[in-house]
Amino acid sequence: MLKDFKGLKWWSWALMGFGVLVLIGIIGGGGNDAKDQASTPTESVLIADTRKQPAEPVVEPPKPTAAEIAAKKALAAKNERARIERARLANAKAVRELAAKKERARKQHALDKQDFIAGAKTIPYAELQKDSGSYAGKEIKLYGKVFQIQQDGANGGFMLLSVTDMGYDIWSDNVWVNYVGRTKAVADDLVTVYGLVLGSKDYDTQIGGSTTVPEVLSAYIEGP
User: Fold this and answer.
1) What DSSP character marks residue 154?
2) Alpha carbon 123 to chain centroid, angstroms
3) Residues 163-198 pLDDT 10s
4) Do residues 202 and 211 make contact, with C-beta atoms less than 8 angstroms apart?
5) Do residues 176 and 158 touch, judged by C-beta distance below 8 A?
6) pTM above the 0.90 mark?
7) How far apart (Å, rounded) are the C-alpha atoms in residues 119 and 97?
8) Distances (CA, A) of 113 to 3, 99, 119
């Protein structure tokens, strides 16, 4: 066999060497392909791991039992009853406080009225007519017969009060009295007026002409 190789030319050896190299390359390439194929599953796993994971399933809360629902309703009803009771007590307290305030005001008004009436003085008509300006602001008490009265609803009005009793149901010496609110008095009634002197008042008479009389602002009217 060696003799056969010795008889080969140089170029035969070159072809044989090239063939061996090609064979080695093929074998080596096949090994790399096998290696690549072996690594493919690992790469697939890595790729799969980098993908977006699916969302966690939503866990629904457990539904309340009938007993729990009943207990919740009972608690709500209890709280509502408590709220209503607190409101009732607060309203009752407000009503009591308002009633007490009104009573204090009434008592204070009564005291103020008593004090005012106690401080009011009778001033002779001649003195009042002569210099009513000097008595301005003074508390005064008048008793007489309503000669004329005019009222504007609840807004009050005025009256001419005759304060001098001439006898035989004849009265003279008029005073102009302003008042606030309502009065039951009508013409020819006898009344007592407690008020403040304002000064003098000019007015036109029914028979023509004008006259000047003392003017008073009433605080309280008593009678008829």
Assistant:
1) G
2) 54
3) 999 999 999 999 999 999 899 999 999 999 999 999
4) yes
5) yes
6) no
7) 32
8) 162, 21, 10
Q: How many other CB atoms are there within 10 angstroms of residue 52's CB atom?
A: 5
Cα(217)–Cα(182) distance, rounded to whole angstroms? 14
Q: Which residue from 132, 172, 177, 141 is spatially nearest to 159, judged by alpha carbons? A: 177
Q: Cβ distance 192 to 142 under 8 Å?
A: yes
- Note whether 219 and 153 are within 8 A (CB): no
DSSP string, 86-126: HHHHHHHHHHHHHHHHHHHHHHHHHHHHHHHHHH-B---HH
Region of 35 please: left (phi>0), alpha (psi -120 to 50) or beta: alpha
Residues in the chain: 224
The two tokens of residue 90 are 């607060």
Quick one: tokens of 214? 């003392």
Q: Which two tokens stand for residue 59?
A: 């866990």
Spans of the chain below 50 pLDDT: 1-5, 31, 34-46
First to last CA, the chain: 170
What is the per-residue DSSP string for 165-201?
EEETTEEEEEEEEEE-S-----TT-EEEEEEEEEEEE
**Phi-psi map region of 105: left, alpha, beta (phi>0 left; psi -120 to 50 alpha):** alpha
Determine the Cα–Cα distance for residues 87 and 81; give it in Å rounded to an integer.
10
How far is residue 176's CA from residue 87's CA, in Å, rounded to a whole number?
53
